[in-house]
Amino acid sequence: MTLTTSPTSPYAHCVTAPLNRSKRGVAMPDKLWPQHSVLTISLLNMTPEQKALVKHNINAWPPHTSLYFKFTDSPNGDIRITADADTRAGWSNVGTDAKKVPLSEPTMGINFTVSPSSVAATIQHEFGHAIGLKHEHQHPDRTLDLNRQNIYDEYASRGEPSYKAKNDILRPFSRKEVKTSNYDDKSIMHYGIRASHLNSGNPIPRNFKLSEGDKSFVQSLYPEDKTLLGKLLSTGIRAMINAQTT
Predict the structure, then answer these.
(1) 8-state DSSP, 122
(2) How confident is the prediction along the chain (246 residues), in pLDDT tens digits per residue?
(3) Which residue range is the domain that position 143 belongs to?
(4) Is residue 129 a contact partner of residue 14, using CB atoms and an 8 Å limit?
(5) Using an 8 Å Cβ cutoff, are 32 and 220 in contact?
């Protein structure tokens, strides 16, 4: 699943919801967090307004997962997010790769210097990476007829190497390396694809919120425990988190 910094330019790294509820997405199975994990999220080098924006947009995800998120100003969280004006939009380690990063370093960066709607979409997109999702436009079943040369030329115009264009956009994932559901061009994890990036077909606008496919796919990766014991445990964990943050 994937996004862009504007309707016409792709993310440096890295919506209208459809009516059906079919599961759609791309994830790295070996990078998913353990079920029912309580993940501590550090918010670093941010203004109070930036922290509030990050929290609000990350909280688009938990209703659709079995994960719990606890925000902190401490620098030693499982996921450490920093304001990063040097990135074109945002970046993130994928899932449990964050555990390999030294505690002195962030695991995600967000550029807050663009429009609030763009920042909001970037946060949702990058946090999708943080819980193990990959770019939707690199889905094995994508239907994109990409103009490879134009994409290479655009990356070159920004001083970026051709291998980055391959890693960001051009290379589809093999079925052996990812877990997928149906291809979803409405996904928050899908880059906006403009006409010049295509040989044929319609451009794909940037998506600004989780699609219904995103929600159902992440539910399949982190399913809710609907047993009585599971519901009681969930209520207790949420109460504990709320008590610690108030």
Answers:
(1) H
(2) 333 333 333 333 442 222 233 445 899 899 999 999 999 999 999 999 999 999 999 999 999 999 999 999 999 999 999 999 988 899 999 999 999 999 999 999 999 999 999 999 999 999 999 999 999 999 999 999 999 999 999 999 999 999 999 999 999 999 888 999 999 999 999 999 999 999 999 999 999 999 999 999 999 999 988 888 877 878 788 787 877 765
(3) 4-245
(4) yes
(5) no
| Contact call for residues 226 and 71 (beta carbons, < 8 A) | no
Assigned token pair, 88: 């074109």
Where do we find the tokens 């009585």?
228
CA of residue 232 relative to chain centroid, distance: 29
The number of distinct structural domains making up the chain is: 1
Answer left, alpha or beta for residue 159, where phi above 0 means left and psi between -120 and 50 means alpha: left
User: Looking at the chain, how many residues does it have?
Assistant: 246
Tokens of 174: 């093999």
DSSP bridge pairs for 41: 71, 79
End-to-end CA distance of the chain: 34
CA angle 85, 86, 88 (to 5 degrees): 90
CATH of the domain at 217: 3.40.390.10
Q: What is the pTM of this model?
A: 0.85
180 closest CA partner among 29, 2, 3: 29
Separation between Cα atoms, residue 78 and residue 70, nearest integer Å = 10
Structure tokens at 159: 């001083």
d(CA 246, CA 42): 16
